[in-house]
Amino acid sequence: MRCRHFLTPLLSPLSFANPPSRPLASRARAVAQPPAQRRAALAEPDVGISRFASSLPGFRGALKQRYSDFVVHEVARDGTLVRLTSFDLPDERADTDDEADADLPHALESFRLLCGDADCEALRGFLSRVSEGDSDVSPIILSPDADKAHRLEVHDFFKRNFIFLVTDTVEHSDGVQRCIRVRLRSGPRGRRNRTGTGSSEPSGWRDDRPFDSRGSVTWPYHLGKFLRFHLYKENKDTQEALRVIGKMLGLQPRSFRIAGTKDKRAITTQQVTLFKVHASRLAALNNKLTGIKVGDFNYVKEGLVLGQLMGNRFTITLRSVIAESEDMIKVAVDGLIKSGFINYYGLQRFGSASVPTHLVGAALLRGEWRSAVSLILDPREGV
Fold first, then answer.
1. Beta strand pairing status for 60-63 and 178-184?
2. Chunked in runs of 10, what are the mean pLDDT values of the chain (383 residues)?
3. For residue range 25-69, what is the model confidence (pLDDT) as tens digits?
4. 334 included as an active-site residue
5. Name one GO molecular function term (predicted).
């Protein structure tokens, strides 16, 4: 039923004719409203907002008299209500080493069966140096392996069992044999020098280029690449709030991802995601922000996209209510709960200029091109 009542009087008969000839265009121009009439304040009946879902007597009240009278909570895809409940920082530590140590003997035995005793002892020594806190430990090179399928098995083994290690395939100095190189992943457990080998000395291998360095080399390997947080704002547009935060962080507004914009004259809470930004940086802004708070931090694998929400929940306060009696208000509210309401577009959707945008749209739909252009370009009083 949306728009049905205001479209009928404006567009009937509805026609998608070809652009009119000159005589028809002249007649179309004649139907354009004179400037004095176009400047009249737009009222709900002018756009067809005239019907009600029930015949019950209603009541009147002031909406959004204060911005705090309109409270909006985003509803996430899983149905949870987005609220600002905590300013605590998430735990960014990796899994405890105790769990890794418990699986180490089993993992090394599996690796021995896959690659042999020599490579197993080389890996054992490498892990020992890592556990001693040597962040500059040099990569190890496994035995030459001409079987590509077997090399893939080895790469997969490290991905499953040693997520803090990275492997790639390199050529031996003879330029013929191919081997697997193993090194400590960039992040909290180690760092690389400019050669990517962990040592300033040449390795003796032909391929001394850095390992795959796509993305941030300093981002912890165990954290999701997106920081998700809840944005609470008062009497501010969503983009305005994000611009303020972005300016403080040195980020462009487009760095933020949201599921949808929220009202300006309101108190709203919604989810936002940022790519590879630590929660501590945002949390530090709370003492500097006015009318804006951020919290409920969490690291996730994917960022938000527009429309990725179930909806919004509104808590509305009406003021200056005019009704025959309190009982009449209760009856009207019960009728609203039972029958709902006609979901009209509000007056704000028709523009604030002296020529309402729906008149231009109606002329275009009728094929009255000259009339539409005149409505847009003709001189207006006070302009």
1. unpaired
2. 36 36 40 48 83 83 93 96 96 61 80 93 89 78 92 91 89 84 69 38 41 49 88 96 96 92 95 95 96 96 94 94 90 87 84 80 94 86 58
3. 343 344 444 444 445 678 888 888 888 888 887 888 998 999 999
4. no
5. RNA binding
* HSE of 21, CA atoms in CB hemisphere, 13 A: 1
The two structure tokens encoding residue 210 = 């850095």
Pairwise CA distance, residues 211 & 214, whole Å: 9
Spatial contact of 365 and 17, defined as CB atoms under 8 Å apart: no
Q: Which residue has the tokens 């004259």?
A: 265
Q: State the catalytic residue, choosing from 263, 296, 334, 378.
A: 263
Residue-wise DSSP of 324-365:
S-HHHHHHHHHHHHHH----PPPGGGG-SSSS-HHHHHHHHH
End-to-end CA distance of the chain: 37
The reported pTM is: 0.58
> Quick check: 45 and 52 in contact, CB under 8 A?
no
Collect all residues with Cβ–Cβ distance below 8 Å to 133 and sequence separation of at least 6.
none
Are β-strands 70-75 and 140-141 bridged in parallel, bridged antiparallel, or unpaired? unpaired
Give the integer Cα–Cα distance in Å for 169 and 153: 12
Q: Is 109 exposed, middle or buried (0-12, 13-18, 19+ CB in 10 A)?
A: exposed
List, for residues 271-288, the tens digit of each pLDDT value.
Answer: 999 999 999 999 999 999
Pull the structure tokens for residue 310: 């179930």
What are the contacts of 331-340 at 24+ separation with CB within 8 A?
A: 331/56, 331/57, 332/56, 332/57, 332/58, 332/59, 335/53, 335/54, 335/56, 339/53, 339/54, 340/53
Helix axis angle, 357-366 to 369-377, nearest 10°: 160
Query: All domains of the chain, ordered by start, with CATH?
Result: 4-51+342-377 (no CATH), 68-92+223-313 (3.30.70.3160), 94-222 (no CATH)
Asked if 347 and 44 touch (Cβ cutoff 8 Å), the reply is yes
